[in-house]
Amino acid sequence: MRYAGQAMKLLGLTGGVGMGKSAAAACLAERGLPVVDTDELARQLVAPGQPANAEIRAAFGDKFFDSGGALRREALAREVFGDETARRRLEAILHPRIRDAWQARAAVWRAEGRPAGVVVIPLLFETHAADAFDATICVACSAASQRERLAARGWSPEASAQRIRAQWPIEDKLVAADFAVWAEGGLERTAEQLRCILRELELAPVVQ
């Protein structure tokens, strides 16, 4: 973990799929911290007319696009999470662009004089992005809660298992992270853990 004196602290928020990253990010946003979610950046990057859209079409074919040129994300997800070679081909198209996008957002926050900013990156450690952050936070929950949350999204057990296998085991993420949030017991419990982390990072006095 690196501290940057009076400079903006950039926080990387990660965790297992369905384990509560979005809820934790919302808690931080409510405290006035700017937040960017790389899943949302990915949606923007694959929109019709974007270079990544055309590159994905060339790599995977027209069947993953609707008549308006929009990427059929769920159909492509079913394809790539069942085929590691295909998944890595997609990641090679998207990950460099996603990194450029969140780094550009962080540069804006620095120019605005923000005390801190948060980037939500599900694959933070898998993409070797940890060194770009002053601190990393991993959100985790029990395997049973994870399965329940993914089922509530309408994912089949097979689809859930494929997504989970595509990430580091949560135990490894927790070991690698500077801070951990155990996302069980409701949003207030998550929020309290995050408040403790902000105090540890000496950010509590400068955010809401």
Give a description of the structure:
The protein has a single domain (9-202), classed as Rossmann fold (3-Layer(aba) Sandwich). The longest helix has 28 residues, at 84-111. The chain is built from nine helices and five strands; from the N terminus they run E-H-E-H-H-H-H-E-E-H-H-H-E-H. Helix 1 (21-30) crosses helix 9, helix 2 (38-45) packs across helix 5 (84-111) and helix 3 (51-60) runs antiparallel to helix 5. The model is unreliable at 1-5 (pLDDT under 50). It has 208 residues and is α/β, with parallel strands linked by helices.
Which oligomeric state applies?
single chain
Task: Please bin the fraction of helical residues.
Answer: 40-55%
Largest sheet: 5 strands, parallel
Number of strands: 5
Give the name of the CATH architecture.
3-Layer(aba) Sandwich
- What's the N-to-C terminus distance? 23 Å
Would you state the CATH class?
Alpha Beta
**Helical stretch tally:** 9
